[in-house]
Amino acid sequence: MNEYDIKRGHFETIEGSKLETLMKEIFGSAERDGEKLKSSFGAMECLTAWVSGKKSLCVETKMNTKVDDKTASETIRMYNQFLERATGFTAKERRKRASKT
User: pTM for the whole thing?
Assistant: First the structure.
């Protein structure tokens, strides 16, 4: 499980049903399982996301490692797009924040 900080003032873009809408927009589907949302895309067999307070987004993924390079790179691109839109931080900013802890 990975926990990502949410940029200050960015929580309103994913509160309520907005995270589910975002997942449907990016991955094509999202199912609600209690407080958690589940989806799949490309090499991600299962992506589970939920909000923990107003400051962090928790994400669990189960990956299929036996996919072609094109599918793998598209999966990574869409996953990064999802995280950027959900947290407000780019991949570079998330990496920098993760290295501080």
Answer: 0.92
